[in-house]
Specification:
Low-confidence stretches: 1-21, 23-56, 329-335
Mean pLDDT: 82
Shape: globular
Largest sheet: 4 strands, antiparallel
Number of strands: 10
Helix content: 40-55%
Order of helices and strands: EEHEHEEEEEEHHHHHHHHHEHH
Length: 335
C-alpha cells in the first residue's frame, strides 16, 4: 500500500513485518517486495499506508527519482567523462592558460604545465600563478608506452591516450552536443514536473539551515526519516551549482569557436576575450571534478547500495529514525 507523502512529492511505501502473525501468512522478504515494486510503474502506488504498531518496525521505500532524472543523470556522467578526457588532450596542445584576449608562448601565463631541462635531468614543472611545483612523473614529464616524454597531462588521463588534437576535438565536440541536448531535456522536464522548483531550488528556510547542515556533514551525520526524503540545503546548492557550471562550460566552449563568434560576437566581451573564456572553461571543469569526488564520497558515506540503487531503479529505502520510533517494546515484552 502507498501514499503520496504530505511533505514531499515522493510516493511512499510502508512495508511491515509483524513480530507474531495472528494467522498463517505467506512470508515475503523485503528484497522480494523491492523487486516487485521495481517492476511496477510508480503512478500505480496510491492509497493510505498501514498504521505501524509499536511492535512492528516499518521499512519505508519511496520512489525518489523519475526515469527522466535517472537517464539524464547517467548520460551526463558519460558525457562529462569523455569531455574531461578529450579536453585534457586538447589542453596538451598548448598547456598554458592566460587571462585576456590573446595568449602566446611569450605572454605571461597564470597556469602552465611543462618540462625543463636541469643538470640532473628533465623535470616536469607545473606553475600556478607565482608558484611552481615539481610534478615529474605526473604532469609535464611522464611516461607514455614505457618512455618519458614531455606532455601536459599524462596519457592515462586523456582521450585518446596518445597526443592527437584532431581526434580529441572530434570526441569533445560530439559529447559536448550530447551534453547540451541532454541538459536541455533535464531542465525542460524539471520545470514541467516541478522537479527543479521542488527538489533543487533552495527555500528561505533551507538557506537558514546552512550552518547546521555544514555541522552535520562535518560530523558525518546523514538525515533519517522524513528529512531523508528531500535534499538538504547543501545538496540543493551543489546540484544547482553543477547546472551553472555546465552552462558556463557550454558558453565558454562556444565562445572559443570562431564560427560562434561570427554569429554572437558579444560573447567575447562577456567573457573578456577568447583566452579568458578558455581559462573559465578550464576552471569550470575543475570545479565539476571536485564536485564529482565529493559526491562519490557522500554516496559511500550515506550507504552506496541504497544510493546507487535509487539512481538505477528510482526506489530509495528511507533510513529509519530510531529516535522518532521510541523504545523497542518488543524487548520490554521479552524481558
Amino acid at each position: 500500500m502507498s501514499v503520496r507523502s504530505p511533505l514531499t512529492n515522493f510516493h511512499a511505501v510502508a512495508v511491515t513485518n509483524p513480530v507474531v502473525p495472528p494467522k498463517p501468512t505467506l512470508a515475503v522478504s523485503s528484497k522480494a517486495v523491492f523487486v516487485l515494486m521495481s517492476s511496477v510503474d510508480a503512478d500505480s502506488f496510491h492509497g493510505s499506508p498501514r498504521e505501524p504498531s509499536a511492535e512492528s518496525p516499518t521499512q519505508e521505500i519511496i520512489y525518489r527519482h523519475s526515469g527522466t532524472v535517472r537517464w539524464t543523470h547517467w548520460i551526463n556522467v558519460l558525457c562529462i567523462l569523455f569531455l574531461l578526457g578529450s579536453g585534457l588532450n586538447i589542453f596538451n596542445a598548448h598547456p598554458r592558460l592566460y587571462w585576456g584576449r590573446s595568449g602566446a608562448d611569450s605572454d605571461h601565463a597564470i597556469f602552465s604545465i611543462g618540462a625543463v631541462d636541469r643538470p640532473d635531468g628533465v623535470h616536469g614543472l607545473t606553475q600556478v600563478g607565482p608558484w611552481q611545483f615539481d610534478t615529474t612523473g605526473v604532469l609535464g614529464w611522464s611516461k607514455t608506452n614505457g618512455e618519458y616524454q614531455a606532455r601536459g597531462w599524462p596519457s592515462w588521463l586523456t582521450i585518446p591516450s596518445f597526443q592527437d588534437l584532431a581526434d580529441a576535438r572530434h570526441w569533445h565536440i560530439l559529447f559536448a552536443w550530447i551534453l547540451v541536448f541532454n541538459g536541455l531535456l533535464y531542465v525542460l522536464y524539471g520545470l514541467y514536473a516541478r522537479h527543479l522548483q521542488r527538489d533543487i531550488w533552495p527555500t528561505i528556510k533551507d538557506l537558514k539551515a546552512i550552518p547546521s547542515s555544514i555541522v552535520d556533514h562535518i560530523k558525518l551525520k546523514h538525515p533519517v526519516g522524513e528529512e531523508a526524503k528531500r535534499y538538504n540545503v547543501l545538496q540543493r546548492l551543489a546540484y544547482l551549482g553543477v547546472i551553472i557550471l555546465i552552462t558556463s562550460m557550454v558558453l565558454t566552449g562556444l565562445t572559443m569557436s570562431p564560427w560562434f563568434n561570427a554569429i554572437f560576437p558579444y560573447t567575447l566581451d562577456l567573457f573578456g576575450g577568447r583566452q579568458s573564456a578558455r581559462t573559465i572553461h578550464f576552471l569550470s571543469a575543475t570545479l565539476i571534478v571536485l564536485f564529482f569526488f565529493v559526491h562519490v564520497a557522500e554516496v559511500f558515506l550515506a550507504g552506496p547500495f541504497n544510493e546507487i540503487r535509487s539512481m538505477l531503479t528510482g526506489y530509495y529505502r528511507v533510513p529509519r529514525d530510531d529516535a522518532a520510533r521510541g523504545p523497542d517494546t518488543t524487548e520490554e515484552k521479552n524481558g
